[in-house]
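The pair is quoted verbatim underneath.

:::
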Amino acid sequence: MGIALGALLVAAELVHSAWLVRLPVEGQIVDPVLPLLIAIAFRWPQWGPLAGLGAGLLQDLLFGGSLGLFALAKLLVGQGAAVLGRTVLVDQPLLPWITTAAATVVQQIVLGIVLVITDLLPVSVGDFGRPLLAGIGLNLLAVWPAFALVRALVALSERRRIRGEGAHGL
């Protein structure tokens, strides 16, 4: 299952870096990895932080920024989603939308704090107004496909597990 999750994250990050960066809205682009990371952490909490770190490092490498900047932000999102996945019923209908919006805000705040501390880029309060709302809206567009993919992986995993148990029972 780990290989399938890793391949899914890599594919989403490649689509993000090769295609979606060409469609900015208010200077923001859809980050399909964020809702996908949340969906993975909800279903397999043990994979949340590792998936976040891996996806963030890949994003750092593909976008040519400071190594570790997105890794830290996505690690925190993956850990937070994993903790939430262990403590609440993850099949609540609004939970994916609310957590994706919150994760977008958390990611932007972490990036802003790191950029201010390291003085890599000037960050102003204006960076958190309309651009942040645009980023939230764009990431919400990716919630349904991301969670549908993870649900399909869960169903496939369950079918394989049931077939495996049935073969041993004969």
User: Anything to note?
Assistant: The chain is about 75% helix and 0% strand. The first helix runs from residue 2 to 18.
